[in-house]
């Protein structure tokens, strides 16, 4: 009788052991599958071809000069601190910047200046993440007189933070898509040639207490509420105040 009871206990223990092993294997399988998906997604982003790059229509811009647009002697200077991975910056670039260009820059009231603030990768410009590398690519495009074209392509092809949309491979494809001299671009990009200039913008943002992007300044005075995107109306009012002050109105 005691032998039979012992045998049944052993059977139950064996069953529990097998069930536990199955559960462990199932869990390991799920973890492995998830890891494989991450690896595949990363590899896919690295080898995406130029055919997948969105290239917006090139717009005629007023007096482009490096990272600025407009009359260098305009009474008002609009500085916008941006991160190429920032969704609010993408919105600003698509929806508010065209109004600034049309009604404030083309009219001679203001000059528009882009400032780098690649904070999403970390509080600095040395992590080598997608914000940093996008800024690096934009400056290398600027070396060939195509900063604003590259800026438009960067925002058109981004849809998430550090998920491969602005990987080095895709940034190179974007440069090719806007017909840059690729030998010159790749040499510039691999050397991070303009790191110091990007850092200078980042340091300026720190001096001005910039805490997010986009942040707008008109003649050194912040426009809009903290934590909110400055509207075109707010920017226009600030610019008109500067213009009117200069004319004595």
**Class inferred from helices and paired strands:** alpha+beta
What CATH architecture label of the largest domain applies? 3-Layer(aba) Sandwich
SSE order in H/E notation? HEEHEHHHHHEEH
Oligomer: single chain
Distance between the termini: 109 Å
Kindly report the CATH topology of the largest domain. Glutaredoxin
Report Rg: 26 Å
CATH class of the largest domain: Alpha Beta
Biggest sheet layout: 5 strands, mixed
Q: List low-confidence stretches.
A: 43-48
**Helical amount among residues, as a percent range?**
55-70%
* Arithmetic mean pLDDT: 86
Query: Please, how many domains?
Result: 2
Characterize the overall form: elongated
* Name of the CATH superfamily of the largest domain: Glutaredoxin
Q: What is the strand arrangement across the widest sheet?
A: 1-3-2-4-5
Strand percentage lies at 5-15%
State the helix count: 8
Number of strands: 5
